[in-house]
Each structure stands twice: as C-alpha cells, then as structure tokens.
Write a structure and sequence with these properties.
alpha+beta; Ybab, Chain: A; 3-stranded antiparallel β-sheet; 2 helices; 53% helix
C-alpha cells in the first residue's frame, strides 16, 4: 500500500469516526436504580436529558437514599454510554486503542 492510499484510508476512517460520534450524540441511554425508582437518561455526549423519580424514591425523611439512587442511576447510564461507544468505535478501529476515543 502506498502513502497516498494509506492517507486516503485514514481520511475515510476519520470521516466514519466523526459520523459515529454524531450518531452517539443523538443516542439516548437510560440508567436506573432501585427497581426503576430512579432513572436517568443521558445522550452519547454524556449530557443528562431527563431524570425520573418514582414516588417511592421520595421520602423527605430519607434524602440520603434518594441521593444514593441518583448516583447509581447516573453511573449505570454512563457505563452504558461507554460500552455503546466502545462497541461502535471498536468496530471502526478493529479493536485498536486510539487515545482520545472511548
């Protein structure tokens, strides 16, 4: 493979990676905790889109449990985005670890 072909292949991969990143930004993933008492939806850009609290999660005398459930739901959603991103980007890079990508 000559240098021009290699550069063309790299440009194509970069364009495809940008397309996948844009696709991820428009993808929403939901994490939950406490049997769905708390759910958090985030997009592939790690921006929170929605927080849903079930009545059973709201106890004015036990705010700490609600705080814990929010942390678990957020971490669940973040883990799902990371897994999705890794799967989609890994398909493009053939499993190569490229710094700056998830």
């Amino acid at each position: 493979m000559n240098q021009a072909q290699l550069m063309a292949q790299m440009r194509k991969m970069q364009q495809e990676m940008e397309r996948v990143q844009d696709e991820l930004k428009s993808t929403t993933v939901t994490g939950s905790a406490g049997g769905n008492a708390v759910s958090v939806s985030i997009n592939g850009d790690f921006r929170v889109q929605k927080v849903t609290l079930g009545k059973e999660a709201v106890d004015p005398d036990d705010i700490e449990t609600l705080e814990d459930l929010l942390v678990v739901a957020l971490n669940d959603a973040i883990g799902k985005v990371q897994e999705l991103s890794g799967r989609k980007m890994g398909a493009l890079t053939g499993g190569m670890k490229i710094p700056g990508l998830m």
